[in-house]
């Protein structure tokens, strides 16, 4: 079941993050709390009861720009025209059962509910093939310097759905 993320979920969310990503791109509790406070409708978990198996963090953003990973004191740009999928992660023992796809679909629902027609993301650790299967296309940016804050091989992607 997908439900809104609450602060009490953060210990499990942080554990899933550390099992899913290299340490260089793992974010702090404060970074997660910022995103939860600023755009709670984009913070979701999948689980049973109070057990979390996966999570989604997405938020409004400005197309063609890349949020800095690990930023504390997070704020939204003045002009937002996309929903940016900041993070989708699934606990290793729950991978392969469609949870990540359900969370990708949930990001689409969030975007539609908020009146956005484009989703963007930075695919890391080879995840661009997963996102391509979900209709995302790689986009070359004029200024991709922010990609260097992510893992090597990071790819900016978008999905337009109108």
Largest sheet: 7 strands, mixed
Distance between the termini: 27 Å
Question: What's the CATH topology label?
Answer: Aminopeptidase
How large is the radius of gyration?
Answer: 14 Å
Fraction in beta strands: 25-35%
Notes on the protein architecture:
The chain has one domain: Gcn5-related N-acetyltransferase (GNAT) (Aminopeptidase, 3-Layer(aba) Sandwich). It has a seven-stranded mixed β-sheet with strand order 1-2-3-4-5-7-6. A hairpin with a 2-residue loop joins strand 2 and strand 3 (51-61). By secondary structure, the chain is α+β, with helices and mostly antiparallel strands. The protein has four helices and seven strands; from the N terminus they run βααβββαβαββ. The two termini are 27 Å apart. The radius of gyration is 14 Å and the shape is globular.
Summary, kept brief:
By secondary structure, the chain is α+β, with helices and mostly antiparallel strands.
What's the arrangement of secondary structure elements?
Elements: E1 2-4, H1 10-20, H2 29-38, E2 43-48, E3 51-61, E4 82-90, H3 99-113, E5 118-123, H4 128-133, E6 137-138, E7 155-160
Parallel strand pairs: 4-5
Antiparallel strand pairs: 1-2, 2-3, 3-4, 5-7, 6-7
């Amino acid at each position: 079941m997908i439900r809104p993320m609450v602060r009490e979920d953060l210990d499990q969310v942080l554990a899933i993050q550390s099992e899913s990503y290299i340490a260089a791109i793992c974010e702090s509790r404060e970074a997660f709390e910022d995103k939860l406070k600023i755009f709670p409708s984009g913070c979701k978990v999948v689980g049973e009861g109070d057990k979390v198996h996966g999570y989604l963090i997405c938020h409004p953003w400005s197309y063609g720009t890349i949020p800095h990973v690990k930023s504390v004191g997070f704020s939204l740009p003045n002009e937002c025209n996309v929903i940016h999928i900041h993070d989708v992660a699934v606990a290793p023992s729950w991978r392969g059962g469609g949870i990540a796809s359900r969370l990708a679909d949930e990001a689409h629902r969030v975007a539609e509910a908020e009146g956005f027609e484009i989703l963007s993301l930075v695919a890391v650790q080879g995840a661009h093939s997963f996102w391509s299967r979900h209709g995302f296309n790689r986009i070359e940016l004029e200024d991709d310097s922010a990609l260097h804050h992510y893992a090597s091989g990071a790819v900016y992607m978008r999905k337009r759905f109108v």
